[in-house]
Each structure stands twice: as C-alpha cells, then as structure tokens.
Amino acid sequence: DTGVSQNPRHKITKRGQNVTFRCDPISEHNRLYWYRQTLGQGPEFLTYFQNEAQLEKSRLLSDRFSAERPKGSFSTLEIQRTEQGDSAMYLCASSEGRANEKLFFGSGTQLSVL
Amino acid sequence: DQQVKQNSPSLSVQEGRISILNCDYTNSMFDYFLWYKKYPAEGPTFLISISSIKDKNEDGRFTVFLNKSAKHLSLHIVPSQPGDSAVYFCAASGDKLIFGTGTRLQVFP
C-alpha cells in the first residue's frame, strides 16, 4: 500500500496529557499537510512542509501544537497539555508540490480528550 | 471568514436521479477547485477537479461546473447510486486547500 499512512487511528487521552501522531506520506511526495476536522466542519488547515521546511502555520496552531518533519519523510504532530477542545480528527495529506494539484489524504487519527 | 461555503448541509436524492451539490467562494484569486468525498472514519478522497480556465469538467457520472463571475461551482452526479452516499467537500486551491463545510448526500432506493 503506497498511500498516506497515519498512526494511531484512534487515541483517547485525559485532559492535560501529551499526545503525538505520526504521518507517513506517499514516498515521492515533497509536500506534507496537517488538517483538523471537527464534527460538521470541513478540514481546517493547520500547517504544511516542503521537504523538511515548515512553510506555513495556521493561527489555529497554538503554542501547544508542534509539528516536525525531520528528514523530509514522515512527520509528527504533538499536542501538549491536551484540552477537550482538541478532540477532533487529525488528517495528514501529501502531494508532489506542483501548482494546482490534488492532495492525497490518510485515514486520519481520531483524538478524544476526556 | 469562510472563503469556501457549502450552504446545504444535507441532500437526499432517489437512486437514479441527479444529485446537485453547490459551493460558493469569495476569493477571486482561487484558480483551481476540487471536490472530495468522505466516508465516516476515513480521510477525504479526491473526486474531480476544475481549473479556472474551464467552465466544465466531466468524469463518468461526475461533472463539475464553474461560474467564475458568480464565484460558484457545482457538482452533478447522474445517475446517483446508493454508494454515492457520503459527505462531499468542495475545496479551493492556493498554496493549500481551503475546504467548505461539506454536504451530506444520501441516495435512497
């Protein structure tokens, strides 16, 4: 399977705990995106990488959130001191990095903060 | 501010009939538009796209229409099938995709 892979699929945590999600993009893709989706909303952009460089961060990405893509391959998204409002599906997507192209999404990580 | 809007949260259509999903955008700089389909507990899957230099793009049962002057696009599915039941998102492309809030389509027999 050469699609975008996300782990874990589900994460349940208690408020105040730290969580980390992983995304493995399609191997030849240079760009990697993180989105968040809550019930009744469309995916909301969080951040994206061109290779290992983080090029843009949304204002939605508070200082409790950090994303890395250390070698330009897989990426991690960490949320520190989780809050109930962080409960959402976190989606990762990748693309080749050309203009006007589609993104390929993973199946997401569903986070529930109790 | 919502740059991409889908004003119909849900749509119910009989199998075999046409489904029409609508989307409006506010930023005239957008030049590429996409439709994604999403099943529960899965990531969005690309369906069809259109460049702003075109006003129509067709792929099998799916056709997307773009009206740049009205900043409006629509997705037509004909004939609709029960397997088309899902949430449909339109998205506009800049350096990232900006999504609408989605329309839940239900196709009943």
Written account of the structure:
The complex is a heterodimer of chains A (114) and B (109). Helix content of chain A is 0%, strand content 49%. Chain A has strands at 5-7, 10-13, 19-24, 31-37, 44-50, 53-57, 65-68, 75-79, 88-95, 104-105, 109-113. Chain A is built from no helices and 11 strands. Chain A has 114 residues and is an all-beta fold. Chain B starts with a strand and ends with a strand. Chain B is built from no helices and 11 strands. In chain B, 0% of the residues lie in helices and 56% in strands. Chain B has 109 residues and is mainly beta. In chain B, strand 7 (62-67) and strand 8 form a beta hairpin. Classes of the chains: A mainly beta (114), B mainly beta (109). Chain A binds chain B through residues 4, 6, 33, 35, 40-45, 48, 55-56, 91, 93, 99-108, 110, and chain B through 4, 6, 9, 31-32, 34, 36, 41-46, 49, 51, 89, 91, 93, 95-102.
Brief summary:
The complex is a heterodimer of chains A (114) and B (109). With 114 residues, chain A is mostly beta strands.
Q: Which band does the percent of strand residues of chain B land in?
A: over 45%
What percentage of the residues of chain A does DSSP assign to strands (E)? over 45%
Order of helices and strands of chain A: EEEEEEEEEEE
Order of helices and strands of chain B: EEEEEEEEEEE
Biggest sheet features of chain A: 7 strands, mixed
**Number of E-type strands of chain A:** 11
Largest interface: A-B, 26 and 26 residues
Mean pLDDT of chain B: 95
